[in-house]
What does this fold into?
Amino acid sequence: MYKYIIRRILIFIPMLLALTIIVFALAQAAPGDPFTGQILDPNIDPEVYELRREELGLNDPVPVQYFNWLTSILSGDLGQSIYYNGRSVLDLISQRFPNTMYLGVFALAITLMISIPIGIYSARKPYSALDYGATGFGFLGLAIPNFFFGLIAIYIFSINFGWFPSQGTITSNNLTGITALIDRLHHLVLPGITLGLAGTATYMRYMRSEVLDVLGSDYIRTAKAKGMTSNSVLYKHTLRNALIPIVTLMGFEFGALVSGAVITEQVFNFPGLGTLFLQSVMNQDYPVIMSMCLLFGVFILVGNLLADIFYCIVDPRIRYD
Amino acid sequence: MQQLNAQETPSVEPIRPPEGQEPNKIKASKSPFQLAFARFRKNKLAIVGIIILVSIILISVFADLLATHDPTKSNLLLIENGPSSEHILGTDGSGRDNFSRLLYGSRISLIVGFSAMVFTLMIGTTLGSIAGYYGGKIDNLIMRLTDLMQALPFFVLALTIISIVPEITITLFVTIIALTSWPNLTRIIRGTFLSLREQEFMLGAKAIGASDFRIIFKHFIPNAIGPITVNATLMMAQMIIFESGLSFVGMGIPQPTPTWGNMLSQAQNIRILRNHPEAWIPAGLGIFLTVLAINFIGDGLRDAFDPKSNRR
It folds into this structure.
């Protein structure tokens, strides 16, 4: 097992390097100076322009440029934003990051709290009314584009009923303590549900089929035969086994969560990484775009790595050689 | 000791009745395809899906006849008007007729969804079958490439590419979608082929000296047609959502081309969102119904091709 984990980490490193190469290639294809964002105006004196290019190393051979870029990234320098007049990209990203993290965690919490219990129930009582309801919900949840769902949610719950705010993350900066927390959560409800919708439908389906699978296996029959109550069969045997694929799924659904966050944040005007990314795309702010591509890529690679390692720790039945 | 392999061609030709005679006496056993078709026909949801999808296709084909106005023509005197007898669903922010745009919008969604699906299918089937058939180093290389592509969420990657290219046309748009979304399909097809590779009829085909090309096209693909069709169908639904999402954030097919995503993007304006639900809700329902119908069909196909599954 340890051999597998070490090998998995060893594969992770070249993957990370390859990711930087892809991002670098994309940045090279972009017009202007996508790495540092320092040459702003193409209308300046050509001689000065050329001098600046030389100074910034833009006339170096491509491998040298790549190497320089990589070293500056490793030292934490992600360049400067063009749109925000030279603000450091790292600054911009770290300012927005907490908001997106809260949104993601909130959405994931909703997803798991709804999908796991309902998935278990559907599997224990297949063809019951709730099971059919859950199936129907699964179809709807996967067919509604999340931005349309978000708009409908704003239209109904924010505009017509006035229950939830439709924009931003906080009402004002003056709130403190518990009221501030409640205010934050209040702002998270609609975007969180919107972002979690597709995930809820997916996890529910998975959970149902996993539990059904485990319930049909021999060790469950044995556990029942030796007189265990159905609740302890559920918690001691069924769930432990059925949850393994769900955890792995979480590692791989990470990318879907990021994509979903980009568009959900746009609908709710939520000041997170998603809106920052979209804004940068619209303004062709390449230093920000490329840094964020890299950031999302690293997140997802780490997510996959953790999912693989976790899978191999919790499921001793699988032998890797 | 020796076992005959019954999976490939039966040793006896099925007896066919002479022409012009009722073929009711001798019943040829049903082919797997006929069986799948029979199972598919019994699936009510799948039939509902077919009916919805066919209606939407008909609307998109006959949009010229059904539309009451030119969907791209703006009328600056009629901006953001509510429903009237002239404009059933009102007009949009540039005074274009929402109803006509809704009808024409189905065209773009279906065309983009279908052609992106075909394009992705071509890339995915080629790479997946090469990886699954040859295995070893090529397989490893292709799989690492898919890992890498999956490290960048395709929405993010597509937006990045869109920010680089100077102008977006439908062809370019489809290409970008296809180039960013092939990895999933490649994985599925490779997985199917890896399991097929171990079957005896593959060994048989190799033993009689069939070329790689022939084996892939005559043996692999027909045997993997079930999972390929199912995933292609579900993929088309995803592509439609994807296209509308990009258009919604203003990075998809540019205005004034009518697309459902473009119509929904109006609702980012709080005034339209609040006062003119008739301008954006129908477009969202259009996407929803199309995707739902395609998913129903995809699920029906999955059950039809997989005799083991007995539900949904």
